[in-house]
């Protein structure tokens, strides 16, 4: 197990930054990819957002204050980059964020990297009907098994509010799946 404090020192050191960043990439690349993928849906889009996320982490690591875990800080960047990506895409296509997500879900069936079946597709459709915050909370809890405590650091929201959002999201998803 890597010592986060030591890794952070190395990331902030000009001599060790590149090597430490390779370690950081190895440690978090896959987890961040799946976090982003749960938000943007498409493999290609997730790859682009992941690249932007790591560029931002690399350029801004010296600004990391240590108020939260490094992991939480990176997840916050990945979350913000994902939301920014969806907002930009919506603006480019002159449609709403919800329509962007619906397009992404409609394209999942032709995505060679999507391994889900009809039930997974239905779940993704149900998740897309949720407000942005509930989507984030549901994805982080259901798919990534992130604890409310960590989620609270990432999303800057109280644990109680996150638990309520998750509960409401689950109810809405159950209703959607039952009715569709």
From TrEMBL:
Residues 121-173 form the RNA polymerase sigma factor 70 region 4 type domain. Keywords: Sigma factor, Transcription, Transcription regulation. One of its GO terms (biological process) is DNA-templated transcription initiation. One of its GO terms (molecular function) is sigma factor activity. It holds the Pfam family Sigma70_r2. The keyword Transcription regulation applies. SUPFAM superfamilies: Sigma2 domain of RNA polymerase sigma factors, Sigma3 and sigma4 domains of RNA polymerase sigma factors. It comes from the Bacteria. Residues 25-91 form the RNA polymerase sigma-70 region domain. NCBIfam families: sigma70-ECF. Belongs to the sigma-70 factor family. ECF subfamily. This is RNA polymerase subunit sigma-70. It comes from Flavivirga aquatica.
């Amino acid at each position: 197990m890597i010592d986060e404090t030591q890794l952070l020192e190395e990331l902030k050191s000009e001599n060790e930054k590149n090597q430490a960043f390779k370690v950081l990439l190895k440690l978090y690349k896959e987890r961040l990819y799946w976090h982003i993928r749960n938000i943007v849906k498409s493999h290609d889009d997730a790859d682009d957002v992941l690249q932007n996320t790591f560029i931002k982490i690399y350029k801004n690591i010296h600004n990391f204050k240590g108020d939260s875990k490094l992991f939480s800080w990176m997840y916050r960047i990945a979350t913000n980059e994902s939301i920014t990506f969806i907002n930009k895409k919506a603006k480019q296509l002159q449609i709403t964020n919800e329509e962007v997500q619906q397009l992404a879900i409609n394209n999942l069936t032709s995505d060679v990297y999507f391994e889900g079946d009809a039930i997974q597709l239905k779940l993704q459709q149900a998740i897309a009907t949720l407000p942005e915050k509930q989507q984030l909370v549901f994805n982080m809890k259901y798919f990534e098994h992130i604890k409310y405590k960590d989620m609270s650091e990432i999303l800057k929201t109280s644990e109680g509010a996150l638990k309520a959002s998750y509960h409401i999201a689950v109810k809405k998803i159950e209703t959607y799946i039952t009715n569709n």
